[in-house]
Amino acid sequence: MQIPGLLQKAKTGFFSGLYTYFFPELCIICDSVRHPDEKWFCAACVSKLKENSCSRDACGWCGLNQSIRSCTCSVAWDFPFTSIISIFDYNEHTQSLIRNIKYNGKRALAADLAGYHPGLSSLNSNVDIIIPVPLHWTRLRKRGYNQAEWFAKGISSITKIPIAGDVVYRVRSTGTQTKLDKSERNTNIRDAFALRKTAESRVAGKRVLLVDDVITTGATITECANSIIAAGCESVTVMSIARD
């Protein structure tokens, strides 16, 4: 038997206690030992994530935490969608989550994080379909999955709202926007999305939930939303794991 097979047997069999002692499960945020029954995080980090989510004084339009940074939405709302809903503030803890999701293969983590939103079931009354922001095919091939699509799966598993993951596609690769300012992001992402010709009938008249992992300036979701709105949907609401 190969070594990985032996380790798996030790992990689940008679020697499971010994295996856990020498190979403890670690929290993906702080690397502390976590209980084997806890998924992803130690108890302390679970508490911090819940506090992050539940204590947010979020703007009803842009989703910014008003206790951290104020916005001008009441006088200058210029997005094409109705509002942004975010589960967490983007900080050192949620940065670790996003990094694990995007670069360490923890795709299922994106789905599980949907459960941290306390009012997720309320989406059923105003959303018909969920559309994840797509990756360009070159990025998708390299990463192997779309983290926004896995986040959408988590939302759908709780709300039972169907996912329409093949409605929008990226016309061109835009690279990372992390180091760009707002103006550069807007220029870089302009006209980067398009609706598939066969998908218009699936979007027309629908109330859409557009989902992504992190929202900063809103440049990406604005361009993506515009391509959906052009197909005649009734409305677009945006949801993200984190808001920066």
Question: Can you characterise this structure?
Answer:
The protein is α/β, with parallel strands linked by helices and 244 residues long. It has one domain (59-243): Rossmann fold (3-Layer(aba) Sandwich). It has eleven helices and six strands. It has helices spanning 3-12, 16-22, 43-54, 73-76, 92-103, 107-113, 137-143, 147-159, 182-189, 200-203, 219-229; strands spanning 84-89, 129-132, 168-170, 193-195, 207-215, 235-243. The strands form two sheets. A four-stranded parallel β-sheet has the order 1-6-5-2, sandwiched between helices. The protein has a two-stranded antiparallel ribbon with strand order 3-4.
**Broad shape:** globular
Radius of gyration: 20 Å
**Element order, helices and strands?**
HHHHEHHEHHEHEHEHE
Helicity level: 25-40%
How far apart are the termini? Answer: 48 Å
The chain-level structural class is: alpha/beta
The CATH architecture can be named as: 3-Layer(aba) Sandwich
Number of domains: 1
Number of strands: 6
Q: At the first level of CATH, what is the class?
A: Alpha Beta
Key traits:
244 residues; alpha/beta; Rossmann fold; two-stranded antiparallel ribbon
Set out the fold topology.
Blueprint: H1 3-12, H2 16-22, H3 43-54, H4 73-76, E1 84-89, H5 92-103, H6 107-113, E2 129-132, H7 137-143, H8 147-159, E3 168-170, H9 182-189, E4 193-195, H10 200-203, E5 207-215, H11 219-229, E6 235-243
Parallel strand pairs: 1-6, 2-5, 5-6
Antiparallel strand pairs: 3-4
Helix pairs in contact: 1-2, 5-6, 6-8
